[in-house]
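To: structure subgroup
Subject: Chain for Friday's discussion

All,

I'm putting the inputs and outputs inline so they're searchable in the archive.
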Amino acid sequence: SLVGSEMCIRDRLRRMNARPAKLGSGVVCVGVMKNERLRIEDFLNHYRVLDVSGFVLIDNGSTDGTLEYALEKPDCTVFSTTNSYSASGFGSQWINAAVDMCDLRNRWLVVADLDELLVYDRCERHKLPELADLLERANLDALPCLMLDMYDDGEPRNSYVPGMSMIDASPMFDASGYGREPSLLKSLLPATALAIQGGPRARTMFDRSDASNMLPYLHKVPFMKWTPGAGMRTSHEVDPIIRNFSPLRGALLHFKFLNNAELTNKDRLHDLDHWNDNQQQSKYFENLGETAGKTFMFEGSQRYVSSQSLADHDLISKLEWAV
């Protein structure tokens, strides 16, 4: 039964905090992590600046100090599991279970991987609680986002260290070239699903004519009010389905390419538990391994300065703030 399945998932999540963390009463950020010591400091800082009141983090067997770092933070509730990431719906079932275990229903939550930073129109001035208020005034329960791959302005480097700004290290993005392709998830979603593809990975690493290469899928819904029945359907879609089609849009800045040593490490590749037998990860290994001078830069590259950089290229919606 569904209830039995949910209970089984909960049993696989172990609470790690010796003392309860402070989640507060505002927007909470929820994420799954594995060996993200490189990014976790800037990730937490980004969402603290956006006024989240706490974090729920699910560690999937980190060995690089990520778990220990999170446990030191008083605003982080930490769970741990060594079960299969792919078998959990790529973390979506763990997230659904952790939300209920932490009694976070009827609250606005951010759900993001630790290499994803949520931005939206004028987020520098208007924090996440204000965004929740704006969406509620518009009778909306979610903010779908384009997942925007960020990259260096020259040859990809391995010099990023914990604590650095991910945006400063990888400030470039593709300002155009995104399109809606036939959904990879037609069995779960309507044919009109927002299967957005494009960006530097699709442009430089994948043959668009070869469907077996599984082009990166750039639609996510990271900000949503978790009313009863709401949840992660997959790592890229939410329930109720209508929330995937909100008329307003933000962006998830995606920092996969901060350190290419991660993506070209054979031991890490074999340790990963991603979909389609790690086919995308294998592509990164092939393309970033020993190619001197490799760069994602092209004539359509633009530098991220602020959220206005994305609004100027119609990559995020312009929002009607009250003041």
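Points worth raising on Friday:
The chain has a mean pLDDT of 85.
The first helix runs from residue 2 to 11.

D.
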